[in-house]
Design brief:
Elements (H helix, E strand, L loop, with lengths): L14 H5 L5 E5 L5 E5 L9 H5 L5 H4 L8 E7 L2 H6 L5 H11 L3 E7 L5 E6 L5 H4 L12 H10 L4 E5 L1 H11 L6 E6 L7 H15 L3 E8 L8 E6 L4 E4 L5 H7 L22 E5 L3 H4 L10 E5 L2 H8 L5 E6 L1 H13 L9 H8 L4 H8 L7 H18 L3 H13 L3 E2 L7 E4 L3 E5 L4 E4 L3 E6 L9 E5 L4 E4 L3 E4 L3 E4 L4 E4 L2 E3 L4 E4 L2 E4 L3 E3 L4 E3 L18 E3 L4 E2 L4 E2 L4 E2 L4 E2 L4 E2 L7 E4 L4 E5 L6
């Protein structure tokens, strides 16, 4: 009979419940949200099967399945749509498709309707979209091992993918290798509490006053390295939690709510237990930039001869190169070799607070953003000194920065944090005292030029009560003319704009994140106050440009237009109606000429 005396001795794999012939084992979550086996002694026959397959108790025996030191590859799927939708480079999708072609089954973790996570297996290729991508919370695997074994016995091909402890449990449960089975695990830093994850989602739903309808961890709209979690709400709002700005990711990286067994993980190190191990190839930009482009690159470890042979079958669908083991340890050693360290907090107190406080309050108390503590302030001071040293080369630029960020009352910026408005030389600024410039994240440069001898003027008009909202590093090149009328709002996310941008904003123009704008582009949300006798006519209507949009040269965007995420507006196009996401449009008026496209600068 399995008995958990110390919680670090249970990884929560659920295999003991599957092996019990008397159905005497169920699982119950503790106050931290992790499940542990509960034995119904009235049903238990003391057969010992649960002990015999526990991956922690039998770790030495599990590592006897042809494991060796791995052959290592880095690469990505040739289909850019798959690569973009994957956590890393899309290699898992290539492996899965190879099994689907045989009529076989693929298992992995999926979100349930309430965004809890469980393991799932099917032979329907349509399920790959649900299986793809990391979930960053422990998945419930009840019934998985039994189902996989039944499929293997009748000769079905199976690709089983899960955390290292789950795949070790599968090895132990099966008690032998099967030729029709490929086991895939991933580089697991540690697994997070389902209770904490739910509290985090509750906090976001409260903040946005709407139910969550979509989640994608490590979404690539802002690039692979942004580590952004994209959360879409029923009311249309979208949250991008970037890196440690996101409370949940920060707590995860500070080891706040990992399963107790993760602090003493038995499944790190070499050799690995799975046939194939996948992960993010951090550091690839230094080792081989040709495999990078900030779109995600997979690290692949082939740990058995079977794994090597299977990988050969997918090489036609991937771009890959072989590397040495030392190459992957540069950016991935902790995930491969080392258990996470126990946090220096009162963990019981933190979980007690989680029951009575909102998640952001718990985050602020136990793992605050480093930018708000003394260490963070020192970093900010160093950043400020670095910025000022750079501007000493151009005293006039320094004076302009001080004038428009410190002296000007309605510029909301923070030079210390590197968030400020920077008009460069030959800028003509007409800024009403009540007009607000709000810079929340990054530097907004106006009048940037490539030809240093150029005296081409850049014009910015902000009338009374208007708002210029800046939410990331961006620049407007010289020769541009931007006018924001009374009470209107113009917003720029992180991105870049070429020469000759013309904006006339009378109500609202919203330019999304990571949007690129070419030369001589016109954007206006109004018809200049002219009246037209026509039913439903409006002189003004907001222009909304989504994230990751590419607007090529000589484009004209009219009032009332919404451009979907990831769209490309071809040169010399007139946009007078809405543009769907992830398409290319061209012409006057704009027409869709390609769909389901993914682009990256």
């Amino acid at each position: 009979m399995i008995q958990i005396v110390d919680k670090k001795d249970c990884c929560g794999c659920n295999a003991c419940g599957d092996i019990c012939p008397q159905h005497a084992i169920s699982f119950q979550s503790d106050y931290e949200g992790f499940w542990y086996p509960i034995i119904d002694e009235s049903k238990c026959s003391n057969c010992g099967l649960c002990d015999s397959i526990c991956p922690i108790l039998n770790i030495k025996e599990i590592k006897q399945y042809d494991q060796k030191y791995p052959v290592v590859y880095g690469g990505y799927h040739k289909n850019i749509t798959i690569r973009f939708d994957s956590t890393s480079g899309g290699i898992f999708s290539a492996l899965a498709n190879c099994i689907y072609k045989k009529g076989g089954y693929v298992s992995g973790a999926i979100f349930n309707e309430d965004f809890s996570v469980s393991n799932f297996i099917s032979n329907n290729k349509k399920d790959l979209v649900r299986l793809r991508s990391s979930k960053y919370v422990q998945s419930l695997a009840v019934g998985l091992y039994k189902e996989i074994k039944n499929l293997l016995i009748i000769g079905e091909y199976v690709l089983a993918c899960g955390s290292p402890c789950q795949m070790a449990a599968l090895r132990s449960y099966l008690k032998k290798d099967y030729e029709n089975l490929i086991i895939v695990d991933f580089l697991c830093r540690a697994t997070n509490s389902p209770k904490v994850y739910r509290k985090y989602l509750d906090y976001l739903e409260k903040k946005y006053n709407s139910k969550i309808v979509y989640i994608k961890a490590k979404n690539k709209d802002l690039g692979w390295r942004s580590l952004a979690r994209k959360v879409v709400f029923d009311n249309g709002e979208v949250y991008y939690g970037k890196g440690h700005e996101d409370h949940y990711r920060r707590g995860y990286h500070f080891n706040m709510y990992e399963r107790p067994s993760c602090y003493d993980c038995k499944f790190k190190g070499l050799p690995r237990i799975a046939d194939i191990t996948l992960g993010d190839f951090w550091g690839i930009e230094k080792i081989d930039p040709s495999l990078d482009r900030n779109l995600g690159t997979s690290l692949v470890m082939l740990n058995t001869q079977k794994g090597e042979s299977f990988f050969e079958k997918i090489k036609a669908s991937v771009e890959c190169k072989e590397f040495a083991l030392k190459d992957i340890l540069i950016g991935n050693k902790p995930a491969i070799m080392d258990p996470v360290k126990y946090p220096d907090i009162n963990r019981e107190e933190m979980f007690t607070d989680l029951d009575r406080m909102d998640f952001d309050q718990v985050a602020e108390k136990y793992f605050p953003d480093s930018r708000n503590n003394s260490i963070g302030r020192i970093k900010l001071l160093k950043n400020f000194i670095k910025i000022m040293l750079g501007y000493l080369k151009s005293p006039m630029d320094t004076l302009r920065m001080i004038r428009y960020n410190i002296i000007r009352k309605n510029t909301k910026s923070n030079i210390l944090k590197g968030n400020f408005f920077q008009p460069l030389s030959y800028c003509a600024l007409d800024l009403h005292p009540t007009a607000v410039i709000n810079v929340t994240n990054g530097i907004f440069k106006v009048g940037l030029k490539r030809n240093r001898k150029s005296r081409m003027e850049t014009r910015l008009l902000l009338e009374a009560g208007s708002t210029l909202q800046i939410d990331g590093n961006n620049f407007i090149k010289n020769g541009s003319d931007i006018q924001v009328f009374k009470g209107a709002t113009l917003r720029f996310g992180p991105g870049a704009t070429n020469m000759g941008l013309q904006i006339v904003c009378a109500e609202k123009i919203w330019i999304g994140d990571n949007t690129r704008i070419g030369r001589d582009v016109w954007i206006r949300d109004n018809n200049g106050g002219h009246s037209v006798i026509q039913t439903g006519y409006r002189d003004k209507a907001p222009v909304i440009i989504g994230n990751n949009v590419w607007i090529c040269s000589n484009v004209n965007i009219s009032k009332g237009v919404t451009i979907g995420d990831g769209a490309i507006i071809s040169s010399n196009t007139v946009v007078s109606s809405n543009v769907p996401p992830h398409c290319i449009v061209f012409g006057n008026p704009a027409k869709v000429i390609a769909e389901n496209i993914i682009w990256w600068p």
